[in-house]
Amino acid sequence: MNKITNNKAWWLVLPVFLLVAFSAIVPIMTVVNYSVQDIFDQNTAYFVGAEWYREMLRSPRLLDSLLRQFSYSFSVLLIEVPLGIAVALMMPAKGRMASVSLILVAIPLLIPWNVVGTIWQTFSREDIGLFGWAVNSIGIDYNYASNASDAWFTVLLMDVWHWTSLIALLCYSGLRAIPEAFYQAARIDRASSWAIFRYIQLPRLKSVLVIGVLLRFMDSFMIYTEPFVLTGGGPGNSTTFLSQALTKMAIGQFDLGPAAAFSLIYYLIVLLVCYLFFTVINLQDKAK
Amino acid sequence: MAEIHLKSLAHSYSKDASKPSDYAIREMDHVWEHGGAYALLGPSGCGKSTLLNIMSGLLSPSNGKVLFDGVEVNHIPPEDRNIAQVFQFPVIYDSMTVFDNLAFPLRNMKTPEVQVQHRVHEIAEVLELTPLLKRRASNLTADEKQKVSMGRGLVRSDVSAILFDEPLTVIDPQLKWKLRRKLKQIHEQFNITMIYVTHDQLEASTFAEKIAVMYDGQIVQFGSPRELFERPNHAFVGYFIGSPGMNFIEVQRSANGVQFGNTQVNLEPELVELLSKIPSNNIKVGIRPEFIQVWDEPNHDAYCCDLVHVADLGTYKILDLKLNGQELKVRLEEDRQVPKGKVYISFPEQWLKLYVDEFLVELPEEFEGESA
C-alpha cells in the first residue's frame, strides 16, 4: 500500500487543541508556573523548585483543613445516603401525591448555595432565628458564632437540608424502575419487608447510589459558600475547609506560590479519591 | 392438595362496573382439579393474567369466590395460599447465588438450615441446576434464570399449585421444548396442580392435558387439545386453534339446511329442525381446512371453487379458494396434485359445524347456543 504523506491534516486538530489549551492547559500551567516561584511583585520572582510543595505538605493549615474536609465529606455521605434512601422509600409511587412530593423534595435543589447559607445563617441565630431560638429555649446552649461544634453542626445540617433531595430523587427513580413482578414474586416467596429491601430494592439501587455518592462526595469536598456565609470559616478555623483555606491564602494574603502548590495538591487529592472510588466499583463488578 | 374452584367469579378493574364490557373477567364457574396440568390459552388482553393473579391472590376479585379445596381464600394473601407463581420475565434476586435464591423462600419461613440444604440440593438436581449452585444468579442465561424462579416455587414443600404466566416468552426457541419437557416431568414427579398461561397453542397442547380457551373475559371451552380441534365449542376456538384456523361462512336458513349466495349446504333434518327453533339470525357454518374433501374430478356433491393462491409449506400445501365470494382455506397433502383454476370440494357432514351467535349448535345432547 502506498502511504500518502500529507501533514496538512494536522491543521484539522488545531481548533480542538486551541480549545483545550485555553480551557485547561494554559490555566493549569499558569498555576504550575506560580507554584515553583516565589513572587514578590510583577518584576521580581525567584525560582524555588519544589520548596512550596514541601512547605505546604508540612503546613498544619493544610493538613488540618484536609482532615476537617474528609471528616466533613464522610459525615455528609453517612447522613445523606441512608436518609435519601429512606425518603425515597416513603415517597408515594403514583397518583397526585407522587407529583406533589416530587416537587416538594426537589425544591431545596433549586436554591443557590449562598442563599442556603443566608437562610440558615438567619434561621439559626439565637436572637432572631426561629431554629436557634427554639433550640436555646428548650435548654440547649447553641450558638454557631462562638461554639465550634455548633458551627460544624450547622454547616452539616445545611448540606443535609440542601442535598439529601438529590439522593432521594435518584433513589426514587431507581425504585420506580423495579418491575412489579419482583414485588409479587417476593410476596409469594414470603419475604419480609426487610428482606424485600435488602435483596430486591437495595441491589437495584446500586447503580444510582454510585452516582449519588460520587456527586455528593465531589460536591461536599469543594464546599465553600455555606461556611463562608455562615461564619467565614470560624469560629477560629473550625469550619475552614480546603477551598476556603486556599482562598484565604491566595486572595487574602496574595501568597501566590504556596497557594498554587496547595491547589495542585488539592487537585491531586480529588483525582486520587475519584480514581480509588472508580477502581473499587469496577473491581466489585468484575468479581460478580 | 389443591382443587381450585372459581365460583361465580368476575372481576372488573373499575369500581362502578355495570356493562359486561367493563369486566376483565366475566362471571364464570370453573374447577381446576387437583394434580392436573392445565393450560389457559387466549389472545393478549383476554384476561388470562388477570385470572391467574386472582388465583394466586395478587389481585382480589370484585365478585364471586375463589375456593381452595372448598375453603374460600378471597381474603388470604398470596404468601399464605400455598401457591407459587412463575412470571413472564424471570424474577431472580441477582445479588444472591443460585443456592441462596432457591433457599430464599425456605429461609423466609425460618426453616432449619439442614433442611434447607437438603431441599435445595434435591430441587437443584431435578432442575439440573446443581453445577450452577455457587454461581451468582445475575450471570445466568434467561432459561437458567427461569429455572431458578421455578425452583423457588418447587422448593417449598407446602406448595400445591404452580401458576405459570407465559414463562417461556424470553427463552430461545430451541430451549423452549427442553424446558417444557422439564415442566411435564416435574408435574409427574411432584403431583402438583399446574396452570400454564400462554397465547401459543402449540405450547398449550404440548404441556397440558386440558386446555381452557379464554376469549373476551370468559372461558369459552375447556377440553383436551383434540376436543378443541375437532369440536370447537365457540367460533373463537375454531379460529384460534389450528393453523390456519377454521373456515367460517355466514349463512342464511334454507329448506334443507343453510345457504350462502346461491350455494346450498344440506344439514341433517334434526339439525334443521333445531335451528328453526332458534330466533337468532347470526348463523355460521365452520369447517377446518384439514377436513375439507378435495376431489380430482367434478361430482354431484362437490362445489366448484376458484383457486386464488397456493402456499407450499413443505409438508403440506394451503390452498386459498373462493366459493361464491366466500374465502376458504384448504389443506392439501404434499403428494396430492394441485388442481388448476377450478377446485372441487365437499364438506364431510361430521366435520361441518353449525354456529349460532358464535356458539356451537349440535345434536343430540347439548345445546349451548343461549349461554352467550
Question: In order across it, which strands form the biggest sheet of chain B?
Answer: 6-7-8-3-9-10
Percent in helix of chain B: 25-40%
Mean pLDDT of chain B, nearest integer?
85
Low-confidence spans of chain A: pLDDT under 50, at least 5 residues? none
Specify the number of helices of chain A: 12
User: In one word, what is the shape of chain B?
Assistant: elongated
Please give the CATH architecture of chain A. Answer: Orthogonal Bundle
Shape designation of chain A: flat
Mean residue pLDDT of chain A: 88
Poorly predicted parts of chain B: 366-372
Number of helices of chain B: 9
Radius of gyration of chain B: 25 Å
**Share of β-strand residues of chain B:** 25-35%
Question: Considering the protein shown, what is the CATH homologous superfamily of chain A?
Answer: MetI-like
- Topology-level CATH name of chain A: MetI-like fold
Q: How many domains comprise the coordinates of chain A?
A: 1
Largest sheet of chain B: 6 strands, mixed
Quaternary organisation of the protein chains = heterodimer
